[in-house]
Amino acid sequence: MSSDSVEVRAAAAGARAKILHEDPEAGNPDALVQALQDPASDVRSEAASALGNLSYKPAVVPLIGLLQHPEAPTRKAAALSLMKIGDASAIEPLKAAAEQETDVVIKPIYTLAINQLNRPADDDWD
Fold first, then answer.
1. What's the CA angle centered on 13, arms 48 and 44, to 5 degrees?
2. Contacts of 124 (CB under 8 A, 6+ apart)
3. Closest CA to 32 of 82, 20, 6
4. pLDDT tens, 24-78?
5. Rounded Cα gap, residues 117 and 89, in angstroms
6. Do the Cβ atoms of 60 and 87 come closer than 8 Å?
7. How far, in Å, are 28, 53, 82, 114 from residue 63 at the CA level?
8. Dihedral angle computed from the Cα positions of residues 38, 40, 44 and 45, in that order, rounded to the nearest 10 degrees
9. Cα separation of 107 and 122, whole Å?
10. pTM of the full structure
11. Long-range contacts of 5-10 (CB under 8 A, 24+ apart)
């Protein structure tokens, strides 16, 4: 994760996520949370995606912060990750970000994430 190469850092984030997905006791996802601040969009997006796939709730606050990032791919990855994590505390920040969003490609992703977070959980159908 500390390589000078963007490609290596992105691959390391993906590999770390795969290992943690297969064995949650194999390590700590905090390195992925730190990677959300990487200068490279590819690394931030890979880390955000990994944290969403892991449903790592401690990443919610840093991901919410990325909803205001100047780069659209980072905002997109953050919104999708928040949706995957499923923490309802992200709904209001997603709504606020959607209101400010000017990118026509990203705005529907916020709507998708909000709609998914508003859906009742499958076990609420009893």
1. 40
2. none
3. 20
4. 777 788 989 999 999 999 999 999 999 999 999 999 999 999 999 999 999 999 9
5. 9
6. yes
7. 17, 13, 7, 14
8. 180
9. 26
10. 0.88
11. 6/40, 6/42, 6/43, 7/42, 9/35, 9/38, 9/40, 9/43, 10/40, 10/42, 10/43, 10/46
Q: Cβ atoms within 10 A of the Cβ of 49, count?
A: 19
Tokens in use for 67? 């909803």
Compute the Cα dihedral for 97, 91, 107, 51 and give only its sign: positive
Residue-level length of the chain: 126
